[in-house]
Write a structure and sequence with these properties.
This protein has about 150 residues and is α+β, with helices and mostly antiparallel strands. It has a single domain, classed as OB fold (Dihydrolipoamide Acetyltransferase, E2P) (Beta Barrel). The chain is built from four helices and eight strands. The strands form two sheets. It has a five-stranded mixed β-barrel with strand order 1-2-3-6-5. A two-stranded antiparallel sheet has the order 4-8. Strand 1 and strand 2 form a beta hairpin. It is globular. About 40% of the residues are buried.
């Protein structure tokens, strides 16, 4: 069962699908690392990685966010639905061609696949490349280079 919605201030953007938010009352807040649910943005060193990060920052940085934690990932981050400025951050990233739908984790997010098809058809963002490489393929390919 998903946790209650948290109202938080976004204080950092790590990449196109990860942010840090300050949640709770002043003086008693806690920082929460958040992975946006059901999407996977290009890695920072990957084509469109910096643009994806900038896009998420434009939407969420220093904004109040509605964060609904759904689960926790292997790195201890909250996997959550995130809304900034009244927009769903995951949908916004996919619509702009700044993230892939992370199909394995996208159950419960039926709006994402049509948005990805539309971005791809319009050759937006990462879809403007002749053969974009999915971040999970990129990470696997370059895991030994870290």
């Amino acid at each position: 069962m998903p946790a209650a919605v948290l109202l938080c201030l976004v204080v950092a953007i790590a990449d196109g699908d990860t942010l840090t938010a300050r949640c709770g009352p002043p003086g008693a807040y806690h920082q929460l690392q958040v992975r946006v649910a059901a999407i996977d943005a290009p890695e920072r060193r990957q084509a469109f990685g910096q643009r994806a990060c900038q896009q998420l920052a434009t939407l969420c940085f220093r904004q109040q966010a509605r964060i609904q934690p759904l689960s926790q990932d292997a790195y201890g981050r909250a996997v959550a639905d995130v809304q900034c400025r009244g927009q769903d951050a995951g949908q916004s990233q996919v619509r702009a061609g700044m993230a892939w739908v992370y199909t394995a984790y996208a159950q419960g997010h039926p709006r994402l696949a049509p948005l990805q098809r539309q971005a791809r058809a319009q050759r937006l963002g990462l879809w403007s490349q002749p053969r974009p490489v999915a971040p999970w393929v990129y990470r696997h390919r370059y895991a030994t280079a870290r």
